[in-house]
Automatic annotation (TrEMBL):
<feature type="transmembrane region" description="Helical">
    <location>
        <begin position="57"/>
        <end position="76"/>
    </location>
</feature>
<keyword id="KW-0472">Membrane</keyword>
<feature type="transmembrane region" description="Helical">
    <location>
        <begin position="269"/>
        <end position="287"/>
    </location>
</feature>
<keyword id="KW-1133">Transmembrane helix</keyword>
<dbReference type="GO" id="GO:0004930">
    <property type="term" value="F:G protein-coupled receptor activity"/>
</dbReference>
<dbReference type="GO" id="GO:0004984">
    <property type="term" value="F:olfactory receptor activity"/>
</dbReference>
<comment type="similarity">
    <text>Belongs to the G-protein coupled receptor 1 family.</text>
</comment>
<feature type="transmembrane region" description="Helical">
    <location>
        <begin position="235"/>
        <end position="257"/>
    </location>
</feature>
<keyword id="KW-0812">Transmembrane</keyword>
<dbReference type="InterPro" id="IPR000276">
    <property type="entry name" value="GPCR_Rhodpsn"/>
</dbReference>
<keyword id="KW-0807">Transducer</keyword>
<keyword id="KW-0716">Sensory transduction</keyword>
<feature type="transmembrane region" description="Helical">
    <location>
        <begin position="191"/>
        <end position="223"/>
    </location>
</feature>
<dbReference type="GO" id="GO:0005886">
    <property type="term" value="C:plasma membrane"/>
</dbReference>
<feature type="transmembrane region" description="Helical">
    <location>
        <begin position="138"/>
        <end position="156"/>
    </location>
</feature>
<feature type="transmembrane region" description="Helical">
    <location>
        <begin position="96"/>
        <end position="118"/>
    </location>
</feature>
<dbReference type="InterPro" id="IPR050427">
    <property type="entry name" value="Olfactory_Receptors"/>
</dbReference>
Length: 309
Protein backbone atom coordinates (compact mmCIF):
# COMPACT_ATOMS: atom_id res chain seq x y z
CA UNK A 1 0.00 0.00 0.00
CA UNK A 2 1.33 3.40 -0.97
CA UNK A 3 2.07 6.00 1.71
CA UNK A 4 0.12 9.26 1.50
CA UNK A 5 2.26 12.07 0.13
CA UNK A 6 2.01 15.52 -1.40
CA UNK A 7 3.48 14.57 -4.76
CA UNK A 8 1.10 13.71 -7.60
CA UNK A 9 3.66 14.05 -10.37
CA UNK A 10 7.39 14.31 -10.92
CA UNK A 11 9.28 16.72 -13.16
CA UNK A 12 12.02 15.07 -15.23
CA UNK A 13 15.01 17.24 -16.16
CA UNK A 14 15.78 14.91 -19.07
CA UNK A 15 19.09 14.62 -20.86
CA UNK A 16 19.72 18.27 -21.69
CA UNK A 17 18.16 21.72 -21.53
CA UNK A 18 19.55 22.75 -24.93
CA UNK A 19 16.64 22.82 -27.42
CA UNK A 20 18.83 22.37 -30.50
CA UNK A 21 20.56 19.40 -28.91
CA UNK A 22 17.16 17.99 -27.92
CA UNK A 23 16.07 18.00 -31.57
CA UNK A 24 19.23 16.17 -32.60
CA UNK A 25 18.74 13.64 -29.80
CA UNK A 26 15.12 13.10 -30.82
CA UNK A 27 16.16 12.17 -34.37
CA UNK A 28 18.92 9.85 -33.17
CA UNK A 29 16.81 8.11 -30.54
CA UNK A 30 13.95 7.68 -33.01
CA UNK A 31 16.31 5.90 -35.40
CA UNK A 32 17.74 3.81 -32.55
CA UNK A 33 14.27 2.81 -31.34
CA UNK A 34 13.08 1.84 -34.84
CA UNK A 35 16.28 -0.17 -35.32
CA UNK A 36 15.72 -1.88 -31.94
CA UNK A 37 12.15 -2.91 -32.72
CA UNK A 38 12.79 -3.98 -36.32
CA UNK A 39 16.08 -5.74 -35.51
CA UNK A 40 14.70 -7.76 -32.63
CA UNK A 41 11.46 -8.55 -34.47
CA UNK A 42 13.54 -9.82 -37.38
CA UNK A 43 15.42 -12.18 -35.07
CA UNK A 44 12.18 -13.45 -33.49
CA UNK A 45 10.50 -14.05 -36.87
CA UNK A 46 13.63 -15.67 -38.32
CA UNK A 47 13.98 -18.09 -35.41
CA UNK A 48 10.25 -18.92 -35.41
CA UNK A 49 10.13 -19.56 -39.17
CA UNK A 50 13.48 -21.28 -39.59
CA UNK A 51 13.72 -25.07 -39.39
CA UNK A 52 17.46 -24.97 -38.68
CA UNK A 53 17.47 -22.53 -35.76
CA UNK A 54 15.77 -24.92 -33.35
CA UNK A 55 18.47 -25.36 -30.71
CA UNK A 56 18.06 -24.06 -27.12
CA UNK A 57 20.48 -21.22 -27.85
CA UNK A 58 18.10 -19.71 -30.40
CA UNK A 59 15.12 -20.45 -28.16
CA UNK A 60 16.72 -18.22 -25.51
CA UNK A 61 17.80 -15.67 -28.13
CA UNK A 62 14.21 -15.20 -29.33
CA UNK A 63 13.10 -14.48 -25.76
CA UNK A 64 16.04 -12.11 -25.28
CA UNK A 65 14.91 -10.17 -28.36
CA UNK A 66 11.35 -10.13 -27.03
CA UNK A 67 12.54 -8.66 -23.73
CA UNK A 68 14.73 -6.10 -25.52
CA UNK A 69 11.79 -4.72 -27.49
CA UNK A 70 9.76 -4.06 -24.35
CA UNK A 71 12.77 -2.97 -22.32
CA UNK A 72 13.54 -0.20 -24.80
CA UNK A 73 9.83 0.66 -25.06
CA UNK A 74 9.60 1.44 -21.34
CA UNK A 75 11.99 4.41 -21.57
CA UNK A 76 12.61 5.40 -25.23
CA UNK A 77 9.09 6.63 -26.24
CA UNK A 78 8.76 8.71 -23.07
CA UNK A 79 12.26 10.12 -23.55
CA UNK A 80 11.52 11.08 -27.17
CA UNK A 81 8.19 12.69 -26.22
CA UNK A 82 9.91 14.73 -23.49
CA UNK A 83 12.53 15.96 -25.96
CA UNK A 84 9.72 17.74 -27.85
CA UNK A 85 8.23 19.59 -24.86
CA UNK A 86 9.60 22.16 -22.44
CA UNK A 87 7.97 20.81 -19.27
CA UNK A 88 8.71 17.12 -18.82
CA UNK A 89 6.40 15.48 -16.29
CA UNK A 90 5.31 12.00 -15.30
CA UNK A 91 2.53 11.09 -12.88
CA UNK A 92 3.35 9.41 -9.59
CA UNK A 93 1.61 6.20 -10.69
CA UNK A 94 3.31 6.34 -14.09
CA UNK A 95 6.68 6.82 -12.41
CA UNK A 96 6.18 3.77 -10.19
CA UNK A 97 5.00 1.71 -13.18
CA UNK A 98 8.10 2.72 -15.15
CA UNK A 99 10.32 1.83 -12.20
CA UNK A 100 8.70 -1.60 -11.93
CA UNK A 101 8.93 -2.39 -15.66
CA UNK A 102 12.53 -1.22 -16.04
CA UNK A 103 13.67 -3.54 -13.25
CA UNK A 104 11.39 -6.40 -14.29
CA UNK A 105 12.68 -6.47 -17.88
CA UNK A 106 16.27 -5.57 -16.99
CA UNK A 107 16.58 -8.33 -14.39
CA UNK A 108 14.84 -10.83 -16.67
CA UNK A 109 17.45 -10.04 -19.33
CA UNK A 110 20.23 -10.61 -16.79
CA UNK A 111 18.85 -14.06 -15.97
CA UNK A 112 18.31 -14.90 -19.66
CA UNK A 113 21.94 -14.05 -20.43
CA UNK A 114 22.97 -16.30 -17.55
CA UNK A 115 20.81 -19.13 -18.91
CA UNK A 116 22.38 -18.67 -22.34
CA UNK A 117 25.86 -18.97 -20.82
CA UNK A 118 24.80 -22.20 -19.08
CA UNK A 119 23.45 -23.50 -22.38
CA UNK A 120 26.79 -22.83 -24.11
CA UNK A 121 28.65 -24.47 -21.23
CA UNK A 122 26.61 -27.69 -21.58
CA UNK A 123 26.82 -27.64 -25.39
CA UNK A 124 30.62 -27.27 -25.46
CA UNK A 125 31.76 -29.01 -22.28
CA UNK A 126 29.19 -31.86 -22.21
CA UNK A 127 28.13 -32.33 -25.85
CA UNK A 128 27.08 -35.98 -25.43
CA UNK A 129 24.56 -35.07 -22.74
CA UNK A 130 23.44 -31.78 -24.29
CA UNK A 131 20.11 -32.92 -25.78
CA UNK A 132 19.23 -34.76 -22.57
CA UNK A 133 20.06 -31.91 -20.21
CA UNK A 134 18.79 -29.01 -22.35
CA UNK A 135 15.52 -30.49 -23.51
CA UNK A 136 12.50 -28.35 -24.41
CA UNK A 137 10.86 -28.81 -21.01
CA UNK A 138 13.98 -27.67 -19.14
CA UNK A 139 14.45 -24.67 -21.42
CA UNK A 140 10.85 -23.57 -20.92
CA UNK A 141 11.24 -23.75 -17.15
CA UNK A 142 14.48 -21.77 -17.35
CA UNK A 143 12.65 -18.97 -19.18
CA UNK A 144 9.85 -19.08 -16.58
CA UNK A 145 12.48 -18.90 -13.84
CA UNK A 146 14.04 -15.85 -15.51
CA UNK A 147 10.72 -14.01 -15.57
CA UNK A 148 9.94 -15.07 -12.00
CA UNK A 149 13.33 -13.88 -10.77
CA UNK A 150 12.87 -10.58 -12.60
CA UNK A 151 9.43 -10.12 -11.04
CA UNK A 152 10.62 -10.86 -7.51
CA UNK A 153 13.55 -8.48 -7.89
CA UNK A 154 11.38 -5.72 -9.31
CA UNK A 155 8.53 -6.04 -6.82
CA UNK A 156 10.99 -5.66 -3.93
CA UNK A 157 12.41 -2.45 -5.45
CA UNK A 158 8.94 -1.09 -6.15
CA UNK A 159 7.40 -1.89 -2.77
CA UNK A 160 10.35 -0.38 -0.91
CA UNK A 161 10.04 2.81 -2.94
CA UNK A 162 6.26 3.15 -2.60
CA UNK A 163 6.50 2.87 1.19
CA UNK A 164 8.51 6.12 1.32
CA UNK A 165 6.82 9.50 1.87
CA UNK A 166 7.29 12.09 -0.89
CA UNK A 167 6.42 15.61 0.30
CA UNK A 168 8.51 17.62 -2.16
CA UNK A 169 10.64 18.55 -4.02
CA UNK A 170 9.53 16.54 -7.04
CA UNK A 171 12.29 17.24 -9.58
CA UNK A 172 14.15 14.16 -10.86
CA UNK A 173 17.52 14.82 -12.50
CA UNK A 174 17.07 11.95 -14.93
CA UNK A 175 15.08 11.00 -18.03
CA UNK A 176 13.17 8.12 -16.41
CA UNK A 177 12.14 6.98 -12.92
CA UNK A 178 14.69 4.81 -11.16
CA UNK A 179 15.45 3.87 -7.59
CA UNK A 180 18.41 6.13 -6.79
CA UNK A 181 16.84 9.42 -8.02
CA UNK A 182 13.59 8.62 -6.19
CA UNK A 183 15.35 7.77 -2.92
CA UNK A 184 16.97 11.20 -2.97
CA UNK A 185 13.52 12.87 -3.08
CA UNK A 186 12.02 10.89 -0.19
CA UNK A 187 11.21 12.76 3.02
CA UNK A 188 12.68 10.02 5.21
CA UNK A 189 15.93 8.29 6.06
CA UNK A 190 16.67 5.99 3.11
CA UNK A 191 19.97 4.50 4.32
CA UNK A 192 18.60 1.01 5.00
CA UNK A 193 16.61 0.97 1.77
CA UNK A 194 19.70 2.13 -0.10
CA UNK A 195 21.62 -0.85 1.31
CA UNK A 196 18.82 -3.19 0.21
CA UNK A 197 18.88 -1.66 -3.28
CA UNK A 198 22.63 -2.22 -3.56
CA UNK A 199 22.22 -5.83 -2.38
CA UNK A 200 19.21 -6.45 -4.59
CA UNK A 201 20.39 -4.77 -7.80
CA UNK A 202 24.13 -4.21 -7.56
CA UNK A 203 25.15 -7.49 -5.98
CA UNK A 204 22.77 -9.43 -8.20
CA UNK A 205 24.32 -7.88 -11.32
CA UNK A 206 27.85 -8.47 -10.01
CA UNK A 207 27.14 -12.08 -8.99
CA UNK A 208 25.60 -12.97 -12.35
CA UNK A 209 28.48 -11.23 -14.13
CA UNK A 210 31.07 -13.23 -12.17
CA UNK A 211 29.19 -16.49 -12.84
CA UNK A 212 29.03 -15.65 -16.55
CA UNK A 213 32.72 -14.82 -16.80
CA UNK A 214 33.72 -18.00 -14.95
CA UNK A 215 31.51 -20.11 -17.23
CA UNK A 216 33.02 -18.56 -20.36
CA UNK A 217 36.56 -19.02 -19.02
CA UNK A 218 35.77 -22.72 -18.46
CA UNK A 219 34.36 -22.90 -21.98
CA UNK A 220 37.41 -21.27 -23.55
CA UNK A 221 39.74 -23.62 -21.68
CA UNK A 222 37.76 -26.66 -22.80
CA UNK A 223 37.95 -25.59 -26.46
CA UNK A 224 41.58 -26.71 -26.60
CA UNK A 225 40.40 -30.30 -27.10
CA UNK A 226 38.02 -29.45 -29.96
CA UNK A 227 38.71 -29.53 -33.69
CA UNK A 228 39.80 -26.35 -35.44
CA UNK A 229 36.41 -25.89 -37.14
CA UNK A 230 34.42 -26.56 -33.96
CA UNK A 231 36.72 -24.27 -32.00
CA UNK A 232 36.18 -21.35 -34.40
CA UNK A 233 32.39 -21.77 -34.40
CA UNK A 234 32.25 -21.98 -30.61
CA UNK A 235 34.55 -18.96 -30.26
CA UNK A 236 32.35 -16.92 -32.60
CA UNK A 237 29.22 -17.75 -30.59
CA UNK A 238 30.89 -17.12 -27.22
CA UNK A 239 32.41 -13.86 -28.45
CA UNK A 240 28.90 -12.59 -29.29
CA UNK A 241 27.61 -13.58 -25.86
CA UNK A 242 30.57 -12.06 -24.02
CA UNK A 243 30.19 -8.79 -25.95
CA UNK A 244 26.51 -8.53 -24.95
CA UNK A 245 27.35 -9.37 -21.34
CA UNK A 246 30.04 -6.68 -21.11
CA UNK A 247 27.97 -3.87 -22.65
CA UNK A 248 24.93 -4.72 -20.52
CA UNK A 249 26.44 -5.64 -17.15
CA UNK A 250 29.12 -2.93 -17.10
CA UNK A 251 26.68 0.02 -16.86
CA UNK A 252 24.35 -1.88 -14.49
CA UNK A 253 27.18 -2.61 -12.05
CA UNK A 254 28.40 1.00 -12.29
CA UNK A 255 24.92 2.36 -11.58
CA UNK A 256 23.60 0.04 -8.87
CA UNK A 257 26.66 -1.20 -6.98
CA UNK A 258 27.03 2.04 -5.02
CA UNK A 259 25.08 4.13 -2.49
CA UNK A 260 22.13 6.30 -3.52
CA UNK A 261 24.19 9.11 -4.98
CA UNK A 262 24.11 10.62 -8.45
CA UNK A 263 26.97 11.44 -10.81
CA UNK A 264 27.00 13.55 -13.95
CA UNK A 265 27.72 10.40 -15.96
CA UNK A 266 24.60 8.57 -14.74
CA UNK A 267 22.28 9.71 -17.51
CA UNK A 268 24.81 8.86 -20.22
CA UNK A 269 25.34 5.41 -18.73
CA UNK A 270 21.56 4.92 -18.45
CA UNK A 271 21.09 5.79 -22.14
CA UNK A 272 23.66 3.14 -22.96
CA UNK A 273 21.98 0.23 -21.18
CA UNK A 274 18.33 1.21 -21.77
CA UNK A 275 18.50 2.28 -25.43
CA UNK A 276 21.82 1.31 -27.06
CA UNK A 277 22.12 -2.23 -25.70
CA UNK A 278 18.69 -3.46 -26.92
CA UNK A 279 19.59 -2.07 -30.35
CA UNK A 280 23.06 -3.63 -30.42
CA UNK A 281 21.97 -7.14 -29.40
CA UNK A 282 20.44 -8.14 -32.77
CA UNK A 283 23.42 -6.64 -34.63
CA UNK A 284 25.93 -8.54 -32.49
CA UNK A 285 24.12 -11.87 -32.78
CA UNK A 286 23.49 -11.62 -36.54
CA UNK A 287 26.80 -10.16 -37.69
CA UNK A 288 28.83 -12.84 -35.88
CA UNK A 289 26.47 -15.78 -36.43
CA UNK A 290 26.50 -17.45 -39.84
CA UNK A 291 23.53 -19.70 -38.99
CA UNK A 292 21.28 -16.71 -38.28
CA UNK A 293 22.47 -14.86 -41.40
CA UNK A 294 21.88 -17.92 -43.58
CA UNK A 295 18.41 -18.40 -42.10
CA UNK A 296 17.58 -14.74 -42.80
CA UNK A 297 18.79 -15.05 -46.41
CA UNK A 298 16.73 -18.21 -46.90
CA UNK A 299 13.63 -16.64 -45.37
CA UNK A 300 14.06 -13.52 -47.49
CA UNK A 301 14.56 -15.52 -50.70
CA UNK A 302 11.40 -17.55 -49.99
CA UNK A 303 9.39 -14.32 -49.58
CA UNK A 304 10.82 -12.83 -52.78
CA UNK A 305 10.07 -15.99 -54.79
CA UNK A 306 6.54 -16.14 -53.37
CA UNK A 307 5.86 -12.53 -54.41
CA UNK A 308 7.23 -13.12 -57.92
CA UNK A 309 4.88 -16.07 -58.40
Amino acid sequence: MWVDNNVSEFILLGLTQNQELEQVCFGLFLLFYIATVLGNLTIIVTIQRSQTLNSPMYFFLSYLSFVDIFYASVTAPKLMADLLVERKTISFHGCIAQLFLVHLLGCTEIFLLTMMAYDRYIAICKPLHYTTIMNKHVCSWMVVASWTGGFLHSIVQTLLTTQLPFCGPNVIDHFFCDVHPLLQLACADTYIIGIVVVANSGMLSLLCFVVLMISYIVILVSLRTHTSEGRLKALSTCASHITVVLIFFGPCIFFYLRPSTTFSEDKTVAVFYTIFTPMLNPLIYTLRNEDVKNAMRKLWSIKVNFREK
